[in-house]
Every structure is written in C-alpha cells, then in structure tokens.
Amino acid sequence: SVQINPPRTSWPVLFLCSQTLFCLFFCTPSCCCTSCPEQCQCTNYSGATAVLCSASNLEEIPTDIPKDTMFLKLDANKITAVPNSTFRHLAHLQEIDLSKNAIEKIDSAAFKGVADGLRLLDLSGNHIQRIPKEALVNLNAMIRLSNNPWHCECTLQEVLWEVKLDPDSVNEITCQTSVQEEYAGKPLLHILDSGINFCNMHQKTTDVAMFVTMFSWFTLVISYVVYYVRHNQEDTKKHLEYLKSLPSTRVPKETIIKPSPSI
C-alpha cells in the first residue's frame, strides 16, 4: 500500500503566521500599523495613540512620531529647541508635554499645524527666557510656562495677555531678569497686578532712542554744514590772496596809442 504523508510546512512560514495572528488578536493598532520612534513606547488608550518618550535621554524631538498620535510625552529629556513646523504632520495632537527639558529656543512657527485640536502644552521647567508671541497666540490649548528664567518685557506681557495659562501654575512665572532691575526675582503676575506695564516702558524707551538718533543725525548735519562753509571760506580767502599776490598787468596810459582821427 502507498502511504500519503501530509505536505511539510517550513518553520519560518509557521513562525510568520503565528506572529501575524498574535498581532491581530493581542496587539494595539499603534504597534501593528505604525512605527514607534526609537527610545519611545507607543500605546493605545481607548483608540487614542500615546507616544511616551519620557526620560529617554533625547536631545531632539523625534521626526518619526506616528501621525495618529494624540498624546505626546517628551518630558525629562535634554531637548534644547523646538524648530519651526516640528509637529506639522501631527494633526490629531491633543497634549504635548515638553516639561523638564533644556529648551532655550522656540521658533515662531514651532506649533504650526496643531493649533486647532491642542488642549494642553506644557513648557514648564525649561531654560526659556524669551518666546515669540506668534508661537503661542493661535493656540487654543492650556499652556504652562512656569519655572523658566523669564526676561520680563513687553513681548512676554503680550503673550500672557493673549494665551490661556494654566491657573495652577501662573503664579510660578517669575522674572529672573527684567527691563527694570527692581522687578527681577518677582512673580510676573504680581508685577502686572500692581499696574506695571512693560509695553509702556518699551514705548518710552523707543521714543527716547528715536529722539537721540534724530538729534545725533541733526548734529551731524549741522556739523557738516559748518565745516563746509568754513572750508569754502578758507578756500575763497586763499584764492583772493593768491590773486592779490600776482603782478599787476595794467598798461600805463602814456603807452596807449590813440587812434588817429579819420579824414
């Protein structure tokens, strides 16, 4: 009798099939369908993708964050800057946590593309001294700016007027330096509540600078005119003295031959 053996299936094929089935039944959509940045963890909470990169020793914001990310944790890293359009491809972002980094610079279009849906932006605990007003004014998110070495001036005041600050952290926005030295080290909110307006100071400083500049130009023009007149006077005087020093070319009267009368 002839014995028919079932066809053999190679181990690699079996392994691939089992891995696929495991992913279909047990993995979250984020781990199966999208890639996750190195040194980060991607999870899924009730259909919302969260990318967790906390304390991952990152020096830059990853560029390969999944497009469906809604919650992005980048806190406790070594990130120093937020360049323009960093999150432009992340239209579903609702929360960005950039706290406890070493951020010093935020470009004016750093959060371009996430303005509509963003609900929370945490920039607390960084090294930020100044921030462009354009970077934050179009955001609808609750913003945390506490525990940064702020330089208190008109631009920062305008930012506070136009953004929605987290009420629990607003008292921790302190002026490390200021356009007026007496306000250094004081909470910015207390300074503004006392009626101080940095923008008025800025306007006065600008007016004084413009006046000084105009006065300098006016003085320069007057000096040039005076120099020009004096220089011309000296040249004219020298020219006259030179003409006087020339020998006389007048002809004596007796040498003049009178024409004979016509006949």
Describe how the helices and strands are arranged.
Layout: H1 11-26, H2 29-33, E1 41-45, E2 48-52, E3 69-73, E4 81-82, E5 95-97, E6 105-106, E7 120-122, E8 142-144, E9 150-152, H3 154-162, E10 164-165, E11 175-178, H4 188-193, H5 198-245
Parallel strand pairs: 2-3, 3-5, 4-6, 5-7, 7-8, 8-10, 9-11
Antiparallel strand pairs: 1-2
Helix pairs in contact: 3-5
Q: How would you characterize the overall build of this protein?
A:
With 263 residues, this protein is α/β, with parallel strands linked by helices. It has 5 helices and 11 strands. Strands 1-2-3-5-7-8-10 form a 7-stranded mixed β-sheet. The chain has a two-stranded parallel sheet with strand order 4-6. α3 runs antiparallel to α5 (198-245). Mean pLDDT is 80; it is low at 1-33 and 202-208.
What is the approximate shape?
A: elongated
Strand-and-helix sequence, N→C?
HHEEEEEEEEEHEEHH
The separation of the N and C termini measures 172 Å
Say what oligomer this is. Answer: single chain
Low-confidence stretches: 1-33, 202-208
What is the structural class? alpha/beta
Strand order of the biggest β-sheet: 1-2-3-5-7-8-10
Specify the helix fraction band. 25-40%
Major pleated sheet: 7 strands, mixed
Number of strands: 11
Q: Compute the CA-based radius of gyration.
A: 39 Å
Number of separate helices? 5
The average pLDDT is 80
Key terms:
alpha/beta; 7-stranded mixed sheet; 263 residues; two-stranded parallel ribbon; 32% helix; disordered N terminus
In short:
With 263 residues, the protein is of the alpha/beta class.
